[in-house]
Amino acid sequence: MRKQYSTFHKEKIAAAALMVAIMLLISAIIGSYCCGEQLATCWIMCKPGSYVTIRATPEKDGAEHGRLDCGDSFRTDGETKDGWISCCEGEGGWVYCGYVVTEKPEKIGERYVCVAKKQVACRRWMAGPQLEGRAAWMKNGEFCEVFLMADGWAVTSRGYIKSEWLEVSVE
């Protein structure tokens, strides 16, 4: 014998099914951004007053999903692809790793001197390509302004330089 359901019962079952579908959809959306992994915090280290774009895809021409200002933090599941790291802020997306550090950048705002034995390369971003022309090298004894330091790198008025080659100027 077949069980009969009242209209009220059918509505209750439909509402429950709808709730389950909504919860599954929300889980899928969250999972697509951060894969449900435990999230870590990273920071943006660039020249003060500038920003880094969050891209929809891990490529420089990917659609813009937002931006992170110098010193901003963001959450990530740590997934990397072709030099980009996943970003779980806002709509989610990808941030170029050359501007990402794992420790909060320390604001410096002081004059430093280069203490390398000969000279050091000034870079476009951390571990990135060397600048061209006169700005490509910083020689022992030359001065620069240091804006931020983190993860062994310094953002300076000359570009990105390994912080081990810099000391606070006493002059």
Structural descriptors:
SH3 type barrels, 171 residues, 39% strand, 15 strands, 3 domains
Q: What does the model show?
A:
This protein has 171 residues and is α+β, with helices and mostly antiparallel strands. It has three domains: 34 residues, no CATH class; 62 residues, SH3 type barrels (Roll); 63 residues, SH3 type barrels (Roll). It contains one helix and 15 strands. The strands form five sheets. The chain has a five-stranded antiparallel sheet with strand order 14-13-12-9-15, with no helix packed on it. It has a three-stranded antiparallel sheet with strand order 4-1-8, with no helix packed on it. The longest helix is centred in the N-terminal third of the chain and has 28 residues.
Low-confidence stretches: 14-35
List the helices and strands in order.
HEEEEEEEEEEEEEEE
CATH class of the largest domain: Mainly Beta
Mean pLDDT: 84
Radius of gyration: 24 Å
- Helix content, binned percent: 10-25%
β-sheet strand percentage: 35-45%
CATH architecture of the largest domain: Roll
| Strands ordered across the widest β-sheet | 14-13-12-9-15
Largest sheet features: 5 strands, antiparallel
Category by helix and strand content: alpha+beta
Return the domain count: 3
Report the span from N to C terminus.
97 Å
- Remind me, CATH topology of the largest domain? SH3 type barrels
Number of helices: 1
Kindly state the number of beta strands: 15
Shape: elongated
